[in-house]
Amino acid sequence: MNTDLAYLQKEFLDQIQFIRKELTDIKKNRDSDEMWDNSDLTRNWKVSLRTLAEWRAEGKIGYVQIGNKIWYPREERELFIKANLVKVRLKNGGEAQSN
Fold this sequence. Notes:
The structure is a single chain. By secondary structure, this protein is an alpha+beta fold. It has four helices and five strands; from the N terminus they run H-E-H-H-E-E-H-E-E.
C-alpha cells in the first residue's frame, strides 16, 4: 500500500511540475515582443497599406524589414500610440484622455 501511495504522490508532483512549466511557457509567450505585419496593422488599426508606407517614410513608426517582409514590434506600436495620443481638456480645468 505504501508503494501505491508513493507512486500516486510522485505522479501528482510530476503533474504539478508539468502544469507549472506550461503556465510559465504561456506567460513567456504572452509577454513576448509580439510582432505584427502590414496585414495585422491594417486590420487592427483600420488604416491602408499606403498610410503605413507614408508613416514609415516619415519616420512616424519604427519597423523591422527582413527581405520584403515588414514587421512592427509591440514597443514601436506603443510608442506610435503615445506620440499620437490626444488629450481632452475638461471644462473644470482638469485633463482627461480622449477615447
